[in-house]
DNA sequence: CTGTTAGCGCATTCAG
DNA sequence: CTGAATGCGCTAACAG
């Protein structure tokens, strides 16, 4: 680890003031091309590398944006991250990623370290455990702009990029009804979480619009755990004449399907299923499963672009830039009970 | 974004010199407990938060370690990352993650930005595309220590944490032989990559040791792509009397399995398969599949601990701390053709 | 277009 | 145990 060359070394070697060197290296228009060339050449010659730490301290910016997701191992999130990274890198930003693991405590810690590290902005899909947003409003006042994605939160001057849960649910349920299902179970998450509530509302609306009565015992709540999935699967088997399942809860749905499979209950020949899911696992278990495709990479690109504009203050009215992205129903053969 | 309180604010308020404040806040033993308490109290009162940027500049350290993996969406890597994060956070280090996407160019860029951002050390699983290690030796001389994981590289004074590919392959193949397989196909990756070569050697050795002839046409090379997997599946179907498959290539193997499934070729009733894989997808496709379990979280913990020791210079002989972790054969029922 | 001056906030000498 | 002084490397005012 030899001593690094600084702008002062270049300055001395060339007998040009260090501020001019700094300007030249930052390609300021206020330096003549001639001296720029001179300086650039010398910089390369001496193996100069800007000390970003010093630069950051001076400008109080880091050119870094923070990302917080529940877990990077979920396909949906790693895809979103890919979209974010691509956009950020192209705009000259670095990216740091943290996982909250659905824990509120952990999320608070992450936000706090990102704040300490002076990231210029934050992209976050809040954890399920998050009960208030003080840490986030604190980030906003002391740090920089925030853009929510995937799990929208209502917060002053803070945009959300998400999908239309209601519509997606409605369409999925309608799809099952069209294919002859009349006794459709709904796998859902906790209703106190807005996202799952809206999905349930979409399901209910689709049934109502098609004159199918709502039976509360057909709406199965659960957490996002595998054990819950097995519980749900068992409940389904006890319900009379179930002929369709609409799941808005990936994790539990997958484990439910595995449970069915182990017990030789064929899906979707016996039961038509629509899953809310981009996960390759469900596709692997049941290649013919119809799924709702969420825009993942695209969501990352949009959220990231928006955040960068907010950082650069190209935009003045953040909340007006919230966006609802469309979903797509990927219809595969055997969920059509024809 | 109001102005932040600095140690000078505390210094003034208490009429104590700022260096003492700095020392107290860093819990230096050279400050009396009494003044420490005083300062700490005031710091909280004023809502003081250390400016890490300034601290970093001064100390020329960032308390951050860089991670580079081919892609975070691979279950194996996201698990390793979990292990790394846990260990790093407990030791007071932050973590930044980059994906090379198996591209050499991208890997070089990432290493370069991590270097510019003065991460204290680097954990890397090199991309498939990487053809030389200049960027890494540059990081070592100008940045800090490196620890390789998963894909071991031979480099001066640089430890690797990886598994014993040869042994794992040998055991997997032996397992198939024990269960009566005699015509075992090997799904592999490019042989010019050391890792795949060693895996193939393990396969060959197991056959040889059991007096089964090696047939080159039973060793199928491929890249890590899905299309390749389908190609391999087709080739298998053309080979005479295949009764076992040992795969050391996750991605291709999964798509091969899906191809089998689509064509109603039952696995593993017709063909016994052993896969090299922690991926939940293959488990989902075929719950009874026997797999080689790689230590993932554990690998992260070990690599991360080692790197931190190297950063702190608690260790003087890095290369002697390379470690080969054991694998475990998870034997599930129906791959035993009994 | 270039030079001068100053300071971002902290940690580390060196004194005492 | 505490204070005074210095500078990490860069950039931003302000001159000229």
Automatic annotation (TrEMBL), chains A, B:
Pfam families recorded: LacI, Peripla_BP_1
Record has Cell membrane as a keyword: no
SUPFAM superfamilies the record matches: lambda repressor-like DNA-binding domains, Periplasmic binding protein-like I
Lineage, broadest ranks: Bacteria, Pseudomonadati, Bacteroidota, Flavobacteriia, Flavobacteriales
InterPro entries attached to this UniProt entry: HTH_LacI (IPR000843), Lambda_DNA-bd_dom_sf (IPR010982), Peripla_BP/Lac1_sug-bd_dom (IPR001761), Peripla_BP_I (IPR028082)
GO MF term (any one): DNA-binding transcription factor activity
Domain of life assignment: Bacteria
Keyword Hydrolase: no
PROSITE patterns named among the record's database cross-references: HTH_LACI_2 (PS50932)
Residue ranges constituting the HTH lacI-type domain according to the UniProt record: 5-59
Record CDD domains: HTH_LacI, PBP1_LacI_sugar_binding-like
Species, as recorded: Wenyingzhuangia marina
Keywords: DNA-binding, Transcription, Transcription regulation
Protein name from the UniProt record: Transcriptional regulator, LacI family
């Amino acid at each position: 680890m030899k001593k690094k060359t600084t702008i002062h070394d270049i300055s001395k070697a060339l007998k040009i003031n260090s501020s001019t060197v700094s300007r030249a290296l930052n390609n300021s228009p206020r330096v003549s091309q001639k001296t720029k060339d001179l300086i650039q050449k010398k910089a390369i010659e001496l193996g100069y590398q800007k000390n970003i730490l010093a630069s950051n301290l001076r400008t109080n910016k880091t050119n870094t944006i923070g990302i917080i997701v529940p877990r990077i191992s979920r396909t949906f999130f790693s895809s979103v991250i890919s979209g974010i990274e691509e956009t950020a890198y192209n705009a000259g930003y670095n990216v740091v990623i943290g996982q909250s693991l659905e824990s509120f405590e952990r999320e608070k810690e992450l936000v706090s370290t990102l704040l300490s590290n002076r990231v210029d902005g934050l992209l976050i899909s809040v954890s399920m455990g998050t009960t208030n947003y003080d840490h986030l409003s604190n980030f906003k006042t002391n740090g920089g702009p925030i853009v929510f994605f995937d799990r929208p939160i209502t917060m002053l001057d803070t945009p959300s990029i998400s999908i239309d849960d209601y519509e997606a649910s409605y369409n999925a349920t309608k799809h099952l009804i069209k294919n002859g299902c009349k006794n459709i179970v709904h796998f859902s998450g906790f209703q106190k979480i807005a996202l799952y509530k809206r999905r349930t509302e979409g399901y209910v609306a689709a049934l109502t619009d098609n004159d199918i009565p709502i039976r509360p015992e057909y709406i199965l709540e659960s957490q996002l755990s595998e054990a819950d999935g097995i519980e749900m699967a068992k409940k389904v088997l006890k319900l009379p004449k179930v002929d369709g399942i609409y799941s808005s809860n990936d994790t539990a749905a997958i484990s439910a399907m595995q449970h069915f499979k182990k017990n030789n209950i064929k899906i979707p020949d016996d039961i038509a299923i629509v899953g809310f899911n981009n996960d390759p696992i469900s596709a692997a278990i049941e290649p013919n499963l119809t799924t709702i495709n969420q825009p993942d990479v695209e969501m990352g690109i949009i959220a990231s672009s928006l955040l960068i504009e907010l950082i650069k203050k190209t935009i003045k009215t953040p909340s007006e830039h919230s966006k609802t992205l469309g979903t797509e129903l990927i219809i595969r053969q055997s969920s059509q009970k024809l």
